[in-house]
Amino acid sequence: MSLGQLRGVIFDMDGVLVDSHAVHRKAWSLFFQTLGREVSQSELDFILDGRKRSEILRHFLGDYPDPELEEFGRRKDCIFRQMRLDVAPVPGAVDMVRDLHREGTVLALATSASRSRARSTLLDLGLLNCFQQFVTGEDVVLGKPDATIYRLACSRMGIEPEHLLAVEDAISGVRAAVGAGLSCVGVASHETPENLTAAGAAHVVRNFEAVTTHDLKCILLGLDCDLVSNQAAAASAKG
Length: 239
Known about the structure:
two-stranded antiparallel ribbon, about 10% strand, DNA polymerase, domain 1
């Protein structure tokens, strides 16, 4: 990959902008209970890897017709919305997004979530006006780790991948970003730094509390960044 100026950043949403995984686990568990299904916590790990809602439903319920999957998805999202007050921003994420936007960096969202949930989440965070583009699970046939969602985001932004940085928390998300030709920052919110690095993340941070926009530019340029390295070490020690 050629080195270049940072012109844009593409963020995943769950686990990157919002610490929502625990709430999603609970919402999925409650939804499955409405169908008379008991799903263990270890089985629910499947939902944390950046997959589309339809993929999750087919994994647990089998090959239902699309209209039924859509209805199941709406029911699960309704349960999630009732608990969304328990969803908090990832530390430092809101300030990071606002700082990038203030500096003129083009921002996009690439999330497996539905379009309505993506918009409502950004609205709740007060960040909707900071994102010029967003691509959701409804815009692609194949979810992450397929690279289509990132290729589509790059196309809509009108920026070549070598000038973009992706931010992901899941192995499948990192692979999708790297597969589209982007450098990727891993956020170790639920995955280990070692696994994110093995998937292709250029650097790993625990959150954005001590990360600056300058640090992101260093990552894109392939320069050493002591802060990022220190955060990765701290995340590894904790996790």
